Amino acid sequence: MIKKPASVKMLALLAFLVTNLIWAAAGPVIKVTLDFIPSHIFLFLRFLVVGIILLPFTIIELKKNPVDKRDYFNLFILGVFSQTAIILIFDGLNYTTALDATIIGVMGPLLSIAAGHYFYKEKVNKAVILGTILAVIGTVFVVIEPIFNGSNSQIDTLHRLWGNILAVAYTLTFLIYVIWSKMSMGERSTLFKKTLSFIHIRPMHQKYSPFILTVTSFYVGLITLVPFALFEQYQTG
User: How many beta carbons lie within 10 A of that of residue 120, not counting itself?
Assistant: First the structure.
């Protein structure tokens, strides 16, 4: 694996920090939004707007760097894990508190560090390992806390617990996307390659840019959310 300069690593960590700060702020906003717009319809409209804005840039990029047809399935699965799976956190916020969802979401970057070390042999020091273990333990307590303390809000215990489980599920699906994306962008991982082979999925046949991986995942999200949005519209009448 090619060793990256310290400045590049610092920039990557800063990007992760900014992303998680945005997501932390998004939780309460999403919670309020769901009082006015059903979650699946909101997500469909979100992807539709993004898809329209990015369409010209996507066409230009795909003309310069076309996608190998053999990778269509892999890109579709990546899109499901990264974008379609957002349904999990939105549905989770229908049941749990924004605070619980935010705390659980913090586990994502920490698990990414652990997975990066496991699959890509990225170096982590003992302090990071200890911090990750403590954070995971703390997150587990947040998830199951409603069982022991009951409901301390307007949300009943079982609903809050279910919402927490959905938030954890989204964190894990996005973790899979992050680890798989690294390999799709050229990082080598024999262990992850074997993992894909075990579930009968072949690695990408070529290297893709972060833009291609991100934008194709948005369009997968748009397409796969159509039935969810239509069903929700039918239910709400």
Answer: 17
End-to-end CA, the chain:
54
Instruction: Write down the pTM of the prediction.
Output: 0.82
pLDDT at 82: 92
Cα–Cα distance for residue pair 84/78, rounded to 1 Å: 9
* DSSP per position, 142-211: HHHHHHHH--SSSS-HHHHHHHHHHHHHHHHHHHHHHHHHHHHTT---HHHHHHHHHTT-PPPSS---HH
Q: How far is 63 from 146, CA to CA, in rounded Å? A: 52
Residue 213 CA to residue 198 CA, distance in Å, equals 23
Q: What are the residue ranges spanned by the domains of the chain?
A: 15-236
What single-letter amino acid sits at 178?
V
- When mean pLDDT is compared over 47-51, 92-96, 176-180, the highest value belongs to 47-51
Q: Work out the widest C-alpha separation in the chain, in whole angstroms.
A: 57
Angle at 210 between CA 205 and CA 216, to 5 degrees: 75
Q: Which residue has the higher pLDDT, 110 or 78?
A: 78
Give CA–CA dist 171/86, Å, rounded. Answer: 9
pLDDT on residue 203 = 82
Predicted pLDDT at 4: 57
